[in-house]
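Good morning,

Both structures are done.
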Amino acid sequence: MSETAQRNGGGKPFRSILEPHFEFIRELRQRRKTWRQITELLLTEKNIRVTVFAPYLFYRRKLKRAAKSNWENAGNDSRLPPARPDVTASRPQSRPSPLAKPVPFKQPDISTIKKDQFT
Protein backbone atom coordinates (compact mmCIF):
# COMPACT_ATOMS: atom_id res chain seq x y z
CA MET A 1 0.00 0.00 0.00
CA SER A 2 1.17 3.47 -0.72
CA GLU A 3 1.38 6.12 1.97
CA THR A 4 -1.78 7.86 0.77
CA ALA A 5 -3.82 4.65 0.78
CA GLN A 6 -2.57 3.49 4.17
CA ARG A 7 -5.17 3.56 6.91
CA ASN A 8 -4.38 5.09 10.27
CA GLY A 9 -6.96 3.30 12.44
CA GLY A 10 -10.03 5.25 11.41
CA GLY A 11 -11.28 8.59 12.45
CA LYS A 12 -13.11 10.01 15.39
CA PRO A 13 -16.37 8.16 16.16
CA PHE A 14 -19.54 10.03 15.29
CA ARG A 15 -21.30 11.78 18.16
CA SER A 16 -24.61 13.52 17.80
CA ILE A 17 -24.72 17.26 18.37
CA LEU A 18 -27.68 16.54 20.64
CA GLU A 19 -25.72 14.20 22.94
CA PRO A 20 -24.86 16.85 25.57
CA HIS A 21 -28.49 18.02 25.58
CA PHE A 22 -30.19 14.67 26.22
CA GLU A 23 -31.35 15.64 29.72
CA PHE A 24 -32.74 18.92 28.36
CA ILE A 25 -34.76 17.03 25.73
CA ARG A 26 -35.91 14.47 28.31
CA GLU A 27 -37.09 17.23 30.64
CA LEU A 28 -39.05 18.89 27.83
CA ARG A 29 -40.67 15.57 26.89
CA GLN A 30 -41.68 15.03 30.50
CA ARG A 31 -43.32 18.45 30.36
CA ARG A 32 -45.33 17.14 27.36
CA LYS A 33 -43.68 19.46 24.80
CA THR A 34 -44.07 18.54 21.14
CA TRP A 35 -41.07 17.74 18.96
CA ARG A 36 -41.62 21.00 17.07
CA GLN A 37 -41.54 22.97 20.34
CA ILE A 38 -38.39 21.11 21.40
CA THR A 39 -36.75 21.97 18.08
CA GLU A 40 -37.62 25.64 18.55
CA LEU A 41 -36.31 25.62 22.14
CA LEU A 42 -33.07 23.98 21.00
CA LEU A 43 -32.63 26.82 18.53
CA THR A 44 -33.50 29.66 20.92
CA GLU A 45 -31.86 28.38 24.12
CA LYS A 46 -28.99 26.19 22.91
CA ASN A 47 -28.40 27.73 19.47
CA ILE A 48 -28.69 24.32 17.77
CA ARG A 49 -30.49 24.24 14.43
CA VAL A 50 -31.90 20.78 13.65
CA THR A 51 -34.88 19.38 11.81
CA VAL A 52 -38.04 18.40 13.68
CA PHE A 53 -37.20 14.71 13.27
CA ALA A 54 -33.64 14.94 14.63
CA PRO A 55 -34.52 15.22 18.36
CA TYR A 56 -37.19 12.53 17.99
CA LEU A 57 -34.85 10.05 16.29
CA PHE A 58 -32.00 10.87 18.68
CA TYR A 59 -34.21 10.50 21.78
CA ARG A 60 -35.75 7.23 20.60
CA ARG A 61 -32.34 5.75 19.70
CA LYS A 62 -30.82 6.88 23.01
CA LEU A 63 -33.62 5.30 25.08
CA LYS A 64 -33.46 2.09 23.05
CA ARG A 65 -29.70 1.79 23.56
CA ALA A 66 -30.02 2.59 27.27
CA ALA A 67 -32.53 -0.23 27.70
CA LYS A 68 -30.18 -2.80 26.17
CA SER A 69 -27.59 -4.40 28.36
CA ASN A 70 -24.24 -3.79 26.75
CA TRP A 71 -20.98 -5.54 27.58
CA GLU A 72 -19.27 -2.16 27.87
CA ASN A 73 -21.88 -0.79 30.28
CA ALA A 74 -22.40 -3.95 32.33
CA GLY A 75 -18.82 -4.24 33.52
CA ASN A 76 -17.55 -7.51 34.94
CA ASP A 77 -20.15 -8.04 37.65
CA SER A 78 -20.76 -11.71 38.41
CA ARG A 79 -23.86 -10.85 40.49
CA LEU A 80 -25.82 -10.02 37.34
CA PRO A 81 -28.20 -12.77 36.19
CA PRO A 82 -27.35 -14.43 32.88
CA ALA A 83 -28.87 -12.91 29.78
CA ARG A 84 -30.63 -16.17 28.90
CA PRO A 85 -31.28 -18.32 31.95
CA ASP A 86 -31.18 -22.05 31.38
CA VAL A 87 -34.84 -22.92 31.80
CA THR A 88 -34.46 -26.49 30.58
CA ALA A 89 -32.48 -27.51 33.66
CA SER A 90 -35.11 -26.25 36.10
CA ARG A 91 -38.07 -27.63 34.17
CA PRO A 92 -39.00 -31.25 34.93
CA GLN A 93 -38.74 -33.79 32.15
CA SER A 94 -42.08 -33.89 30.41
CA ARG A 95 -43.58 -36.91 28.72
CA PRO A 96 -44.56 -36.67 25.10
CA SER A 97 -48.29 -36.23 24.68
CA PRO A 98 -50.05 -39.41 23.57
CA LEU A 99 -51.36 -39.39 20.04
CA ALA A 100 -55.04 -39.88 19.38
CA LYS A 101 -55.95 -43.39 18.32
CA PRO A 102 -56.39 -43.65 14.57
CA VAL A 103 -59.97 -44.19 13.40
CA PRO A 104 -60.24 -47.17 11.05
CA PHE A 105 -61.24 -46.33 7.50
CA LYS A 106 -64.86 -47.11 6.57
CA GLN A 107 -65.73 -47.33 2.92
CA PRO A 108 -68.90 -45.34 2.10
CA ASP A 109 -72.04 -47.24 1.17
CA ILE A 110 -72.83 -46.41 -2.48
CA SER A 111 -76.49 -47.41 -2.17
CA THR A 112 -77.16 -44.58 0.35
CA ILE A 113 -75.74 -41.85 -1.89
CA LYS A 114 -78.37 -39.89 -3.81
CA LYS A 115 -77.10 -39.69 -7.38
CA ASP A 116 -79.52 -36.95 -8.49
CA GLN A 117 -77.65 -34.40 -6.30
CA PHE A 118 -74.66 -34.44 -8.62
CA THR A 119 -76.46 -33.90 -11.90
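Second structure follows.
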Amino acid sequence: MTRHDDMIRLRHMLDHAREAVAMIRGRTRPDLDRNRMLELALVRLVEIVGEAARQVSERGRARYSSIPWREITSMRNRLVHGYDEVDLNVLWDPVTADLPPLIAALEEIVPQG
Protein backbone atom coordinates (compact mmCIF):
# COMPACT_ATOMS: atom_id res chain seq x y z
CA MET A 1 0.00 0.00 0.00
CA THR A 2 1.34 3.39 -0.86
CA ARG A 3 1.48 6.45 1.34
CA HIS A 4 -1.35 7.86 -0.77
CA ASP A 5 -3.54 4.86 0.03
CA ASP A 6 -2.74 5.25 3.71
CA MET A 7 -3.72 8.91 3.52
CA ILE A 8 -7.09 7.91 2.06
CA ARG A 9 -7.64 5.50 4.95
CA LEU A 10 -6.58 8.15 7.46
CA ARG A 11 -9.01 10.58 5.84
CA HIS A 12 -11.80 8.00 6.17
CA MET A 13 -10.93 7.57 9.84
CA LEU A 14 -10.98 11.32 10.41
CA ASP A 15 -14.21 11.97 8.52
CA HIS A 16 -16.16 9.17 10.21
CA ALA A 17 -14.80 9.94 13.67
CA ARG A 18 -15.84 13.57 13.23
CA GLU A 19 -19.29 12.48 12.12
CA ALA A 20 -19.71 10.23 15.18
CA VAL A 21 -18.67 12.99 17.56
CA ALA A 22 -20.96 15.49 15.83
CA MET A 23 -23.83 13.03 16.10
CA ILE A 24 -23.61 12.91 19.90
CA ARG A 25 -23.13 16.63 20.39
CA GLY A 26 -25.80 17.81 22.83
CA ARG A 27 -26.82 14.25 23.66
CA THR A 28 -26.38 12.14 26.76
CA ARG A 29 -25.79 8.44 27.32
CA PRO A 30 -29.52 7.76 28.00
CA ASP A 31 -30.29 9.18 24.54
CA LEU A 32 -28.47 6.20 23.11
CA ASP A 33 -30.85 3.82 24.93
CA ARG A 34 -33.87 5.58 23.48
CA ASN A 35 -32.71 6.16 19.93
CA ARG A 36 -32.13 3.06 17.84
CA MET A 37 -31.10 5.10 14.78
CA LEU A 38 -28.43 6.85 16.83
CA GLU A 39 -27.18 3.48 18.08
CA LEU A 40 -27.01 1.99 14.59
CA ALA A 41 -25.37 5.08 13.14
CA LEU A 42 -22.68 5.18 15.83
CA VAL A 43 -21.99 1.47 15.50
CA ARG A 44 -21.49 1.85 11.77
CA LEU A 45 -19.32 4.95 12.05
CA VAL A 46 -17.06 3.35 14.65
CA GLU A 47 -16.86 0.20 12.51
CA ILE A 48 -15.71 2.29 9.55
CA VAL A 49 -13.07 4.05 11.64
CA GLY A 50 -11.78 0.63 12.71
CA GLU A 51 -11.90 -0.89 9.26
CA ALA A 52 -10.03 2.04 7.76
CA ALA A 53 -7.44 1.76 10.54
CA ARG A 54 -7.10 -1.96 9.85
CA GLN A 55 -6.28 -1.19 6.23
CA VAL A 56 -3.47 1.26 6.98
CA SER A 57 -0.18 -0.38 6.04
CA GLU A 58 2.34 -1.56 8.64
CA ARG A 59 4.62 1.18 7.40
CA GLY A 60 1.88 3.77 7.92
CA ARG A 61 1.14 2.45 11.40
CA ALA A 62 4.81 2.68 12.27
CA ARG A 63 5.04 6.19 10.84
CA TYR A 64 2.04 7.37 12.87
CA SER A 65 2.76 5.42 16.03
CA SER A 66 0.87 7.89 18.21
CA ILE A 67 -2.40 6.50 16.83
CA PRO A 68 -3.73 3.65 19.04
CA TRP A 69 -4.07 1.20 16.14
CA ARG A 70 -4.69 -1.93 18.19
CA GLU A 71 -7.42 -0.34 20.29
CA ILE A 72 -9.18 1.06 17.24
CA THR A 73 -9.19 -2.24 15.36
CA SER A 74 -10.15 -4.14 18.52
CA MET A 75 -13.21 -1.93 18.90
CA ARG A 76 -14.14 -2.59 15.29
CA ASN A 77 -13.80 -6.33 15.84
CA ARG A 78 -15.88 -6.22 19.00
CA LEU A 79 -18.69 -4.40 17.20
CA VAL A 80 -18.61 -6.52 14.05
CA HIS A 81 -18.30 -9.91 15.71
CA GLY A 82 -20.48 -9.07 18.69
CA TYR A 83 -23.17 -7.44 16.58
CA ASP A 84 -25.92 -9.25 18.47
CA GLU A 85 -24.79 -8.03 21.90
CA VAL A 86 -23.52 -4.48 21.55
CA ASP A 87 -22.98 -3.04 25.02
CA LEU A 88 -24.01 0.57 24.57
CA ASN A 89 -21.53 1.70 27.23
CA VAL A 90 -18.76 0.08 25.20
CA LEU A 91 -19.99 2.14 22.26
CA TRP A 92 -20.66 5.43 24.06
CA ASP A 93 -17.45 5.62 26.07
CA PRO A 94 -15.04 5.45 23.12
CA VAL A 95 -17.11 7.88 21.06
CA THR A 96 -17.11 10.44 23.86
CA ALA A 97 -13.63 9.84 25.31
CA ASP A 98 -11.43 8.32 22.60
CA LEU A 99 -12.61 9.81 19.32
CA PRO A 100 -11.95 13.50 20.15
CA PRO A 101 -8.21 12.91 20.81
CA LEU A 102 -8.06 10.63 17.76
CA ILE A 103 -9.57 13.40 15.66
CA ALA A 104 -6.98 15.86 16.99
CA ALA A 105 -4.15 13.44 16.16
CA LEU A 106 -5.50 12.75 12.68
CA GLU A 107 -5.93 16.47 11.99
CA GLU A 108 -2.17 16.81 12.51
CA ILE A 109 -1.54 14.10 9.89
CA VAL A 110 -4.23 14.45 7.23
CA PRO A 111 -3.96 17.42 4.88
CA GLN A 112 -6.87 19.85 5.11
CA GLY A 113 -9.22 19.80 2.22
